[in-house]
Amino acid sequence: MAIENLIQELCSGCGICVAVCPQDVLRMDESTSKAVIKYPDDCVPCYSCMWFCPVDCIEVSQLRPRKVPSPY
What is the pLDDT of residue 68? Predict the structure, then answer.
Protein backbone atom coordinates (compact mmCIF):
# COMPACT_ATOMS: atom_id res chain seq x y z
CA MET A 1 0.00 0.00 0.00
CA ALA A 2 1.46 3.34 -1.02
CA ILE A 3 -0.66 5.54 1.26
CA GLU A 4 0.72 4.74 4.69
CA ASN A 5 -1.59 6.88 6.79
CA LEU A 6 -4.49 9.32 6.60
CA ILE A 7 -4.86 11.00 9.98
CA GLN A 8 -8.60 11.43 10.50
CA GLU A 9 -8.16 13.85 13.42
CA LEU A 10 -6.27 16.30 11.19
CA CYS A 11 -8.45 15.91 8.09
CA SER A 12 -10.53 19.04 7.46
CA GLY A 13 -12.88 17.33 5.01
CA CYS A 14 -12.05 19.72 2.16
CA GLY A 15 -12.06 16.91 -0.44
CA ILE A 16 -9.02 18.17 -2.36
CA CYS A 17 -7.23 14.82 -2.03
CA VAL A 18 -10.25 13.02 -3.46
CA ALA A 19 -10.41 15.44 -6.39
CA VAL A 20 -6.71 15.21 -7.32
CA CYS A 21 -6.29 11.42 -7.01
CA PRO A 22 -5.87 10.05 -10.55
CA GLN A 23 -6.51 6.44 -9.45
CA ASP A 24 -9.70 7.14 -7.45
CA VAL A 25 -8.16 5.70 -4.26
CA LEU A 26 -9.70 8.16 -1.81
CA ARG A 27 -13.37 8.81 -1.09
CA MET A 28 -15.32 11.05 1.28
CA ASP A 29 -16.97 9.25 4.20
CA GLU A 30 -20.58 10.44 4.34
CA SER A 31 -20.89 9.88 8.09
CA THR A 32 -17.79 11.89 9.08
CA SER A 33 -17.41 14.16 6.02
CA LYS A 34 -13.71 13.30 5.95
CA ALA A 35 -11.50 11.53 3.43
CA VAL A 36 -10.89 7.78 3.74
CA ILE A 37 -8.64 5.35 1.89
CA LYS A 38 -11.19 3.29 -0.03
CA TYR A 39 -9.04 1.39 -2.58
CA PRO A 40 -5.47 1.27 -1.19
CA ASP A 41 -4.25 -1.36 -3.66
CA ASP A 42 -4.94 1.01 -6.58
CA CYS A 43 -2.50 3.68 -5.32
CA VAL A 44 0.54 4.10 -7.61
CA PRO A 45 1.82 6.55 -5.59
CA CYS A 46 1.83 9.88 -7.41
CA TYR A 47 1.95 11.96 -4.18
CA SER A 48 -0.81 14.31 -5.42
CA CYS A 49 -2.95 13.76 -2.33
CA MET A 50 -0.03 14.45 -0.02
CA TRP A 51 1.18 17.55 -1.91
CA PHE A 52 -2.25 19.17 -2.20
CA CYS A 53 -3.48 18.42 1.34
CA PRO A 54 -3.71 21.78 3.13
CA VAL A 55 -3.40 20.22 6.61
CA ASP A 56 -0.70 17.58 5.84
CA CYS A 57 -2.74 14.63 7.11
CA ILE A 58 -1.64 12.14 4.42
CA GLU A 59 1.59 10.13 4.46
CA VAL A 60 2.66 8.32 1.28
CA SER A 61 5.37 5.67 1.14
CA GLN A 62 8.29 6.17 -1.23
CA LEU A 63 8.14 2.51 -2.21
CA ARG A 64 6.07 1.79 -5.29
CA PRO A 65 4.03 -1.39 -4.82
CA ARG A 66 3.46 -1.70 -8.56
CA LYS A 67 4.65 -0.05 -11.76
CA VAL A 68 3.06 3.28 -12.66
CA PRO A 69 1.07 2.90 -15.91
CA SER A 70 2.08 5.18 -18.76
CA PRO A 71 -0.58 7.75 -19.71
CA TYR A 72 0.30 7.27 -23.40
Answer: 64
